[in-house]
Amino acid sequence: MSVIWRNVGPLAGIPLRGARRLCFGHRSQPIAVFRTGADQIFALIDECPHKKGPLSEGLISGETVTCPLHNWTIDLGTGLAQAPDIGATQPLPVRIENGDILVGLPEAQSAAA
Ligand code: FES
């Protein structure tokens, strides 16, 4: 998948065990950027695979987030729901550059911005 890297602001803008919801235009899906307690950064499409709950409002524990609507647990790295639930949300590549977070948006999503 071809991606376009987009600077979404400083790492310090997201607290430990926190998240930020980003929207890049009305036709694109919202994105959640997560910062774990161990200071790792992950990004997922901000829609739970169950009923599209906002994962950015969930509880982060280790490398998972618990959806605020019905408590499914989603792996931040893979986007996979943890058993016994089944489903996945799309993970997005992230990297840190000069203290800023860059998210790799699929070209189609980036074009909608
Ligand atoms: S919408 Fe996330 S658990 Fe139901």
Report on the structure:
It is a single chain. The chain is mainly beta. The protein is globular, with a radius of gyration of 13 Å. The protein binds FE2/S2 (inorganic) cluster. The site of FE2/S2 (inorganic) cluster has 9 residues, from loops.
What's this model, at a glance?
The chain has one helix at residues 107-111, and strands spanning 3-10, 18-22, 31-35, 41-45, 59-61, 64-66, 73-75, 91-92, 94-97, 100-106. The chain is mostly beta strands and 113 residues long.
The general outline is globular
The average pLDDT score comes to 93
β-strand percent reads 35-45%
Could you name the CATH topology?
Rieske Iron-sulfur Protein
How would you name the CATH homologous superfamily?
Rieske [2Fe-2S] iron-sulphur domain
- Taken in chain order, the helices and strands follow as EEEEEEEEEEH
Sheet with most strands: 4 strands, antiparallel
**Rg on CA atoms, Å:** 13 Å
Question: Low-confidence segments, ≥5 residues, pLDDT <50?
Answer: none
Query: Architecture, CATH level 2?
Result: 3-layer Sandwich
Level-1 CATH class name: Mainly Beta
Q: Structural class, from helix and strand content?
A: mainly beta
Number of helices: 1
Number of DSSP E strands: 10
- How many distinct domains? 1
- The proportion of residues forming helix, as a percent range, comes to under 10%
Q: Ends: how far apart? A: 18 Å
Q: State the strand order across the main sheet.
A: 2-3-4-8
Ligands (ions, cofactors included): FE2/S2 (inorganic) cluster
The quaternary structure here is: single chain
